[in-house]
Amino acid sequence: MDELAQGDDGSPMTFGDYLRLHVAWARRAAEVQAEAADLYHQLAERGMPGLADQRDETLRAIAHMEQVADVNAAQSIAHDEMMAAGGPENSRAYVEYEAMTRRHQELLPRDTLG
């Protein structure tokens, strides 16, 4: 766990750093799912039952992961900007950060993928 709490240079990771890790994970997961969607499509073309539906569900999951990655990327920037402006002790920067957080929450997917 200590390895996860440190950046490449050994310094403690910030909340923005954690968000960026999640962005990288979500984007990589979307890439892997795109490969799976291609395979499902190929197998469906060969007549395997149910794989066209699986491909469609996988495409929904990809869109979901990409949207989460984009929102987390924007949130990490907002966090970094708030910290650069003095952190939570700067009431104006914190209020702006809270407002941005609410806007980002509204952008998160509502699709449960279920």
What does this entry look like structurally?
This protein has 114 residues and is an all-alpha fold. 72% of the residues lie in helices and 0% in strands. The chain has helices spanning 15-45, 51-84, 91-107. The mean pLDDT is 90.
Q: Uncertain spans, ≥5 residues at pLDDT below 50? A: none
Radius of gyration: 19 Å
The count of β-strands is 0
Distance separating the two termini: 31 Å
Which percent bin holds the helix content?
over 70%
Helix-strand makeup class: mainly alpha
Q: Sum up the overall morphology in one term.
A: elongated
Which percent band covers the strand fraction? under 5%
- Averaged pLDDT, please? 90
Order of helices and strands: HHH
Q: Output the number of helix runs.
A: 3
What's a concise summary of this model?
By secondary structure, this protein is mostly helical. Helix content is 72%, strand content 0%.
Summarize the topology:
Layout: H1 15-45, H2 51-84, H3 91-107
Could you name the key traits of this structure?
single chain, 114 residues, mainly alpha, 3 helices
